[in-house]
Amino acid sequence: MRIHHILYTAILTAGSFLITLGAAAQERKGPPRGGGGHSPVQTKTLEEVGGYKIGDVATDFKLKNVDGNMFSLSDIEKAKGYIVVFTCNECPFAKMYEDRLIALHNEYAPKGYSVIAINPNVSDSNTREGFKAMQKRAEEKEFPFVYLADEGQKIAPQYGALRTPHVFLLDHERKVQYIGTIDDNARSAENVKVKYVVNAIESLENDEKPNPNFTKAIGCQVKIARN
Amino acid sequence: MKLQKCIFLLAVCLLPLCYGFITVNPEKESSHLSRNQEIPVYNFESLKPLLYTNSDKVHIVNFWAMWCAPCVKELPILKQYEANNPNVEILLVSLDFPENIDSTLKPFLKKKGITSEVVLLDDPDANSWIDKIDPKWSGAIPFTIIFNNENRSYHERAFENIEDLENEIKKTIKNK
């Protein structure tokens, strides 16, 4: 009996010892480098393209929808606001948000806030972002919202769309009230902690200013044609 | 009978211990030979120290992903610069997803012949850390930091060619 106990203790000790060793082996050595004196030099950024700031009145437009008809914001009757989102077919981040955009539209369009999706990367030379591919994607996913082709990139630079997906929430006067990302977790809808766009809409509904009104996210670059 | 059982248990527990000893050492020795065999996954806080240096060597940190076409197009430019300047420290921060490391990222790097150090940044709430890297960064990639212990510049664009990159390095690192 006593031998049993001693051996058992020995096993436990050995076990914890090897666990420690294992952990040490797993640990990655992130070179501990200290900071230093820095003199930041900022080179040209895409922000210099310009774009809207909070409070600016956003332009309406006339763009071709996947159903073949031209579409303008003014076509939406009794709109209380507009969820304008620059997105595209191929970007994995855009794809990860498709279902959430559908849910957003289904919940808020009846309340006066429709999703208006615009593809700034539509291109004849890239078939995967071409108009036909947009039609196909809209059909596959049964988009309940319009999906517009920003041919010749006339609208994205005016708004200042830098990446996909990039949301511009406008109020009923088309004043920009929120710019940024949909929520705080692109990869996993389940693990979202903050729903930025939903919160911003709720703020507008309560006659409050969205806070935050500007967020950033990793996304695919909107390919601004360089002239 | 009980004693035998215990000895057996002890042996079972000690087996992984031996395994640990066997695997730990070779990994340490070969880490220089095959750097991109293992791709560590960082969150922003653990990545942060890699964005600064006490050395006067040229450091380039490039944020990229396999799904980002301009990033992929830019990789050979960084590769060529590294080949021409073995003294440069290049770190490729991949924003791909951790579950793709073995299935696609490693084969991709092998196919492209990328031997630079690669780490993967997995920190979903990008809004919380983008500004900490550079307040002017929108979050679009590719995004590159050129720095040493004294100078630093940020580039939210792809370099067009090797001359373009060399030019930006010259402009940034004043005494080179």
Automatic annotation (TrEMBL), chain A:
Residues 1-25 form the signal peptide. This is Thioredoxin family protein. One of its GO terms (molecular function) is antioxidant activity. Pfam families: AhpC-TSA. The keyword Signal applies. Keywords: Signal. CDD domains: PRX_like1. PANTHER family: OS07G0260300 PROTEIN (PTHR43640), THIOREDOXIN-DEPENDENT PEROXIREDOXIN (PTHR43640:SF1). Gene3D superfamilies: Glutaredoxin. Residues 52-206 form the Thioredoxin domain. InterPro entries: AhpC/TSA, PRX-like1, Thioredoxin-like_sf, Thioredoxin_domain.
From TrEMBL, chain B:
The keyword Signal applies. CDD domains: TlpA_like_family. Residues 19-174 form the Thioredoxin domain. GO terms for molecular function: antioxidant activity; oxidoreductase activity. Keywords: Redox-active center, Signal. The keyword DNA repair does not apply. Residues 1-24 form the signal peptide. SUPFAM superfamilies: Thioredoxin-like (SSF52833). This is TlpA family protein disulfide reductase.
